[in-house]
Amino acid sequence: MKTWLTETFNIKYPIIMAPMFLVSSIDMLVEASKAGIMGCIPALNWRTPEEFEEGLKELKERCEGPFGINIIVNQSNIHMHKQIDLCAKYAPDFIITSLGNPKEVIEKCHPQGTKVICDVVDLKYAKKVQDQGADAVIAVNSGAGGHAGPTPASILVPLLKRNLDIPVISAGGIATGSGLFSIMALGCEGVSIGSPFIATKESIVSDAYKEAVVNYGAKDIVMSNKISGTPCTVINTPYVQKIGTEQNIVEKAMSKNKKLKKYAKMLTGYKGMKAVEKAAFGATYKTVWVAGPSIEFIEKIETVQEIVKRLITEYETAVEEFLAKRS
C-alpha cells in the first residue's frame, strides 16, 4: 500500500484519522501512530491558544509517528491567527485546513517543513489551493461526516485527479476494508476516516454518544446548518427532530446580509460549538451528535488499534477476493 501518503509521512497504511471537533484526543493520535496510520486533531479542541500550545507540546512528546492539526481558516475561528503562529513554532507534520483560505497557513508553516493539506468539495476550490501551494487535497465527498461535500467519491476523486497535479486523498463513507479497497481503486493516495473512530475507547466523548454511533445507522443521518452555519451531518435523534435542521428566520436574515454575514457566521459557529460541546460530554440524546453514514458499519466500541487492524484485515480479504475473481 505504498502511496504518496505513506511515503511522505513514513506510515504503514495510507489512512488519516480525521480531525473531529471535541471527539479527537491526544490519546487517539498516540494510538493511531502505534497502529501505523496518522491522526489529526482540531486546534479548536483546545479552548484557548495557551491550552493549544500545551497540547502541541504533549503531542510532540508522546506521538511516535506523524501527527496533524486541523485549522478552520475563516472568520468564525477567532483564534485562527494565533493557532497558525503556534503551528509555525512547533511544526506539526501536517496541517489540514478547512472552510476557508489556506494562504496564511501555507506561507507561515511551509518554511518549517509542515505539509499543508486542504479540504475541498469541488474542482474550482481545489485548483485555487493548488495554485497557492497546497501539498495535497482531501476530497470531501457526500458520504463524509460533519461538513460533507455534495459529490460522491466515485465522481469527485477522478475529477480532481484528472485536473490537479497534487495528490488527492478521499474523505467520507469508509468504515470497512472493502470500502477502503474500492476508494483506493479510484487512484487516491489515501483516505481520511472519522466517524468509526468516534466509538473508540480513547475518544473523549460520552458513552451515550459512542453508543449512538453503534446503535444508529446510515438512514439516521441528516444534514443540519444549525451547528456551524455550514451544512453538517448529524444523527437524527429526538432532540434534533425537535429543534429542526434549518436556521431560524433571524439567522437566515443575518446570513444573507453582506455586512452582517461575517458576524452571523461567527455567532452561528459559536452557538453550534457550544451545542456540540454539550453533546460531546452530556449523557443524553437530547443534544447534537455529529457523525456520517458510515456508522452503519459500526457494531461495537473498540480501541483505535482494533479498528485499524480490522480495516486492514478486511482490505486484504477484499484484495484477495478481487484477484481470485480475475484469475
TrEMBL record:
* A GO term for molecular function: monooxygenase activity
| UniProt cross-references to Pfam families, sorted A to Z | NMO
Sorted alphabetically, the keyword list is:
Flavoprotein, FMN, Monooxygenase, Oxidoreductase
PANTHER family the record matches: BLR1330 PROTEIN, NITRONATE MONOOXYGENASE-RELATED
UniProt family annotation: Belongs to the nitronate monooxygenase family. NMO class I subfamily.
Q: What is this protein called?
A: Nitronate monooxygenase
User: What is the species of this protein?
Assistant: Halobacteriovorax vibrionivorans
